[in-house]
Design brief:
The protein is globular, with a radius of gyration of 12 Å. 28% of the residues lie in helices and 24% in strands. The chain has helices at 21-35, 51-57, and strands at residues 40-46, 61-65, 69-75. The chain is α+β, with helices and mostly antiparallel strands. The chain has one domain (14-78): Gcn5-related N-acetyltransferase (GNAT) (Aminopeptidase, 3-Layer(aba) Sandwich), CATH 3.40.630.30. The protein is built from two helices and three strands; from the N terminus they run αβαββ. Strands 1-3-2 form a three-stranded antiparallel beta sheet, with helices on one face. The structure holds coenzyme A.
């Protein structure tokens, strides 16, 4: 969405899903992004994907909506 806003792509191999790995990855990614001086990180998610709930509970908010997917942003200074 902007050159200074990294876009995340998160995936956990099927046997490891539902055990907190995705949430731990996001927490660590946010910590490292702050460390590297970024103010925001973004991602795109299909609206039907259960990952959306993970992102909302981690503090991402929707900034743009397409027909089936949303662009979401986490403001790191608020963490
Ligand atoms: C999305 C993904 C990264 C989540 O990783 P994960 O390790 O399974 O997630 P966690 O175990 O940390 O769960 C975090 C939250 O995700 C949601 N969640 C995870 N698995 C879920 C499921 N099967 N159904 C509904 N919600 C689910 C829950 O809100 C959960 O929060 P809770 O533990 O408080 O209930 C993983 O499922 C994945 O790789 N999916 C396929 C690829 C993909 O869709 N990536 C996202 C593209 S935007």
């Amino acid at each position: 969405m902007a050159e200074d806003v990294p876009e995340l792509s998160v995936g956990v191999l099927p046997p490891w899903r539902g055990q907190g790995v995705g949430r731990a990855l996001l927490t660590e990614l946010a910590r490292r992004a702050v460390e590297h001086g970024f103010a925001r990180v973004s991602l795109s998610v299909e609206r039907a994907n259960h990952a959306r709930r993970l992102y909302v509970t981690e503090g991402f908010t929707t900034v743009e909506s397409g027909p089936d997917s949303d662009t979401m942003v986490m403001v790191l200074s608020e963490r």
